[in-house]
Write a structure and sequence with these properties.
Elements: E1 2-6, H1 10-20, E2 25-30, H2 33-42, E3 46-49, H3 55-60, E4 68-71, H4 76-88, E5 94-97, H5 106-115, E6 119-121, H6 123-136, E7 142-146, E8 151-157, H7 169-172, E9 179-186, E10 189-191, E11 204-209, H8 214-220, E12 231-235, H9 239-246, E13 253-258, H10 261-270, E14 276-280, H11 286-291, E15 299-302, H12 307-319, E16 324-328, H13 335-340, E17 345-347, H14 349-360, E18 366-372, E19 377-383, E20 404-411, E21 414-416, E22 429-434, H15 443-446, H16 450-463
Parallel strand pairs: 1-2, 1-4, 2-3, 4-5, 5-6, 12-13, 12-15, 13-14, 15-16, 16-17
Antiparallel strand pairs: 7-8, 8-11, 9-10, 9-11, 18-19, 19-22, 20-21, 20-22
């Protein structure tokens, strides 16, 4: 697959890292030679110095033969313009990053699709959804819903009071049990577990279950004493915070701490009518937090542009008794630090946006892809097609790659867990958990095999 990326900034760099491990043919365009030199030294790709919206530059990059054209510079107008040009030059699919919620409206999306922009990615909106999912369940690090919640993945930090520690998984996750453990993050190691593996104190365990058994998972993990989030404090009143407030459940109240007085005035207008109070001040000031009721706050969300500031603020909030913390860590190098400090839910906009873009390069029918920052792994929702290899035999006989497991499936709208004896049917939505495995390697399991197509053609001829 030939992929062209414009913009050697955060998202472009992260995409290059993801895609280069897949041995794709990648070209990255930027008008800054220093940025290109850095990314060219780190990854196996071709760099071109030039304007992303220059017809000459895009022709030089071979846009006419591009399977995927991705525009992720900080300038949304340039991204849209370059995608329109790429479409005119016969690129097969185009993706543009935007910075305005206007573009997520369906009629606007359709308008730009007609101009040649196939997908519009708004990272702040995607991040806001992740934040709100984390706030709805104070005892969960990350939640991911499949097919409208028919299946649910929960990432939970296990403590000593969990009743499922130190027992082989074959005793915990049998065919009749209402959950599966699809992965374990232990220290710096991600484990795709087998029946003999055990859960340990301080593991981050990834559960796959159905919605009705979420209370049961809460009980066995020892999280029943965690109170639900009612009051939230936000540090930093940027775009992501505003988008998160727009999607905040009605039963939650919020306070936003912002040190810029001009931005405070803007926020007063932006959050008008919502149950949110704008406070001019530094949320690292413990006396200010105490005055504003940190002792009656269940969640603290740090969304400034500085990862160190966000991490320190969350540590302060935890010391003051806040159970649930959410931290925006835009520098990938700080993710492990945040994990080791037991911060809580980690948000990285470029990784979230990259997951959505990554989904677009897959040939199989993929409904959803998410990158699990803590586990350095991908979860994808594939749809099994008629004649696909995944439907031809029980799961235990499929010979799936190492470090790949099936979390569950949705059949006719109903979520089901999967055992070795399960046979996947055409039309099933199947959740695949992959650590260090190229998702494109799984496409061959979900697309019809050539032999099936040949056999089908022969049968058709015989019927004539």
């Amino acid at each position: 697959m030939k992929i062209i990326i414009t913009g050697a900034y955060a998202i472009g760099t992260h995409l290059a890292r993801l895609l280069s491990r897949n041995e794709e043919e990648i070209t990255i365009i930027d008008d800054d030679e220093d940025r290109l030199a850095k990314i060219g030294a780190d990854y196996d790709l071709l760099t071109i110095c030039g304007s992303p919206s220059s017809v000459k530059t895009l022709r030089q990059a071979g846009t006419a033969n591009a399977d995927l054209f991705i525009a992720v510079t900080p300038n949304e107008s340039e991204n849209i313009n370059s995608c329109i040009i790429a479409h005119a030059l016969k690129a097969k699919k185009t993706v543009a990053k935007v910075n305005n919620d206007e573009y997520v409206e369906e009629d606007i999306r359709l308008f730009y699709k007609g101009l040649g922009v196939d997908e519009l990615i708004y990272p702040e909106m995607l991040a806001a959804r992740e934040i709100n999912n984390g706030l709805k369940m104070s005892w969960v690090r990350q939640r991911w819903d499949v097919h409208g919640g028919a299946l649910v993945m929960l990432a939970i930090k296990l403590r000593q009071d969990s009743e499922i520690l130190d027992k082989p998984l074959r005793e915990l996750c049998g065919p009749d049990d209402p959950y599966h453990i699809v992965a374990i993050k232990r220290g710096h190691e991600t484990i795709i577990p087998g029946g003999n593996d055990c859960l340990r104190n301080l593991d981050l365990a990834y559960f796959m279950t159905t919605k009705q058994y979420i209370p049961y998972i809460r009980k066995i993990t020892g999280k029943e004493h965690y109170v639900d989030v009612r009051n939230v404090m936000f540090m930093g009143g940027g775009t992501t915070a505003v988008r998160a407030l727009e999607g905040l459940p009605e039963y939650m109240n919020a306070k936003i701490f912002e040190i810029d007085p001009d931005r405070c005035q803007d926020l007063d207008q932006l959050v008008s009518g919502k149950k949110a109070l704008v406070i001019h001040g530094d949320a690292r000031d413990t006396s200010l937090l105490e005055d504003e009721g940190i002792n009656n706050t269940q969640a603290f969300v740090a969304l400034t542009g500085n990862a160190e500031t966000n991490i320190l603020a969350c540590l302060t909030a935890k010391r003051l008794g806040v159970r649930k913390t959410v931290v925006d860590v835009e520098n990938i190098d700080y993710v492990d630090m945040a994990e080791s400090l037991d911060i809580g839910t980690i948000i990285n906009k470029k990784a979230i946006a990259a997951s959505r873009i990554y989904q677009l390069m897959l040939d199989a029918d993929v409904m959803n892809v998410t990158f699990l920052m803590s586990a350095n792994a991908d979860v994808a929702e594939f749809v099994a097609k008629s004649g696909a290899r995944i439907t031809t035999q029980p799961v235990k006989d499929l010979k799936l790659p190492h470090d790949v497991t099936i979390g569950g499936l949705v059949r006719d709208g109903k979520g089901m867990l999967v055992s070795g004896n399960t046979t996947i049917m055409p039309g099933d939505h199947v959740v695949m958990f992959c650590h260090g495995v190229n998702l494109k390697l799984l496409e061959k399991y979900f697309n019809p095999t050539k032999s099936f197509g040949i056999a089908k053609g022969l049968l058709k001829k015989l019927s004539l």
